Amino acid sequence: MHAIRKLWRSMPLQLAVLLVALFATVSLLSLAASYAVTQRSFEQSIRASLHQDLAGFRAAPNARAVAMLVEGESREADPNRLILSYVSRSGRIFGNGAIARDDAGFHIVSLDRDRAEFAGGYLALTDTLFGGLITVARSRAEIVSLRRVFVNILLISLLPTVLIALSGGLILARRSKRHVEVVAGALDQMTSGDLATRVEIGSRWSDDLRQIGDKVNDMATAQEIQTQALRQVSMDIAHDLKTPLQRVSLYLNDLETQAHTTGLDLELVHKTQDEITGMGRVFEALLQLAQVEAGSPKARFAPVALGPICQTMVDVFEAEAQAAEQTLTANIGPVSEVSGDKALLGQMVSNLVGNALKHAGKNSSISVSLRQQGDRVHLIVADNGPGIPREEREKVLQRLYRLDRSRNTPGNGLGLSLVEAIARLHAAELVLGDNKPGLRVEVLF
User: Fold this and answer.
1) Crossing angle for the helix pair 159-191 and 11-58, nearest 10 degrees?
2) CB-hemisphere CA count at 13 Å for 103?
3) What is the bridge-based pairing of β-strands 365-373 and 376-383?
4) Which pLDDT belongs to residue 13?
5) Under 8 Å between Cβ of 186 and 197
6) β-pair partners for 136
7) Pairing of strands 122-129, 105-110
8) How far apart are CA 392 and CA 31, in angstroms?
9) Which end of the chain lies in a sparser environment, N or C, as judged by fewer CB atoms within 10 Å?
10) How far apart are the first and last CA of the chain?
């Protein structure tokens, strides 16, 4: 059903349906106009015949001659085609029929006892003649037959044409759908990090799809070149910064050794060492965030069990929570596996738990929950700390953004940014909510 609905929304089929509807509308209007003109022509021809018949009876010298003429012609006439009736001044009826009227309208009644009324429609013309009433009526059977002829034309010519056109549109839609799927598949692989993928353009592709395929390939080539250049720059920066940071760290170690003899302030040395370590962590986090946003790890996705990852992170952070007089609990239920990168998912859970421990405050409670609802897996990390104001929840997902503008609390403003990037890479939804009190972070896979 989904495939049919998706095929119906394809542009070639919609265009085919639109063209068929336009063609059918024009054809129906043309047939209707032709039928109306032909019907009018037939009716005018019948009325002309009626006037001609009536003119012949007017040529009779008297009423008796008219009656004899009506009687003679009515015996030879087919009553299914021609009805003749003359009612004399005395009320006597001559001919093969008479006009009667009731609540339903006018009827032509046969004067033959075996036939009380004529079937079908007639066009009639009535006039007074020698004190009597003469009526001539001709059958509309030809006009009725004309209607059947046009209906047959509609069924024989228009309907098969519409069916053939729709079938052609369906074939073109399926063919176009395959071509679009080739482009979509290549884009999916590029999104997964395989920038070497290209759209394989077939020989039977239309010019517009071929142009789209060429543009996608050009974009992939440019993106691959830019990504390679960015990776090279990142490697160069990492290499260039690694050595100075290591040298500063060594100098600080030497300074710490000399501090015991020279009386230097060890606390200042330790603070400087912590800052150098923090600089390295920020740089590593930025590189990891760039790698995740590029989508390159998606090529290594495999089924991952979130339960053991969550339990491991709770065990790892338990000692830190006890030292800060905080309570860290786990409520892990049975859930299905998710497709993803195990290391990145572990990093995401670690960032969420570490962020909660860092900002919830002393004597706070942090819980890590994992449950399944339908086909969705819910990972929830909640605390009863100060939380995040509603107007700030979108901003904290930006890199290097911190609620503490004074930078007095530890951190680099990259934790939730990395969590959001990992969730987006895994097609998961990240929701920051109010735990009343505290923050409730929910990741829906």
Assistant:
1) 170
2) 0
3) antiparallel
4) 64
5) yes
6) 84, 125
7) unpaired
8) 67
9) N
10) 25
Q: Compute φ and ψ for 208, nearest 5 degrees.
A: -70, -40
For residue 23 the two structure tokens come to 């063609």
Tokens of 28: 């129906």
The per-residue pLDDT for 378 is 92
User: Chain-centre distance of CA 361, in angstroms?
Assistant: 47
Q: What are phi and psi of 206, to 5 degrees?
A: -75, 165
Q: What is the 3-state secondary structure (H, E, C) of the chain?
A: CHHHHHHHCCHHHHHHHHHHHHHHHHHHHHHHHHHHHHHHHHHHHHHHHHHHHHHHHHCCCCHHHHHHHHHHHHHHCCCCCEEEEEECCCCCEEECEEEEEECCEEEEEECCCCCCCCCCCEEEEEEEECCEEEEEEEECHHHHHHHHHHHHHHHHHHHHHHHHHHHHHHHHHHHHHHHHHHHHHHHHHHHCCCCCCCCCCCCCCCHHHHHHHHHHHHHHHHHHHHHHHHHHHHHHHHHHHHHHHHHHHHHHHHHHHHHHHHCCCHHHHHHHHHHHHHHHHHHHHHHHHHHHHHCHHHHHCEEECHHHHHHHHHHHHHHHHHHCCCEEEEEECCCCCEEECHHHHHHHHHHHHHHHHHHHCCCCEEEEEEEEECCEEEEEEEECCCCCCHHHCCHHHCCCCCCCCCCCCCCCCCHHHHHHHHHHHCCCEEEEEECCCCEEEEEEC
Averaged over successive runs of 10 residues, the pLDDT of the chain (445 residues) comes to: 60 70 80 84 87 86 87 81 84 78 64 61 84 85 80 78 75 73 78 73 76 83 75 61 68 68 63 64 59 60 88 88 87 88 85 86 88 90 85 69 48 68 84 86 91
Q: Which residues contact 341 (CB under 8 A, 6 or more apart)?
A: 297, 298, 300, 301, 302, 304, 425, 426
Question: Is-contact 297 344, C-beta < 8 A?
Answer: yes
Encoded amino acid at 127, one letter: D
Check if the beta carbon of residue 220 is closer than 8 Å to that of residue 198: yes
259's tokens: 């501090």
pLDDT at 238: 57
Structure tokens at 301: 């996705």
Q: Identify which of 86, 108, 103, 106 has the alpha carbon closest to the alpha carbon of residue 95.
A: 86
Reported pTM: 0.45
- At position 232, the amino acid (one-letter code) is Q
Q: Which residue has the tokens 């003679």?
A: 72
Instruction: Return d(Cα 353, Cα 321) in angstroms, integer.
Output: 10
User: How many other C-beta atoms are found inside a 10 Å radius of the C-beta of residue 383?
Assistant: 26
Q: The tokens of 372 are what? A: 């399944």
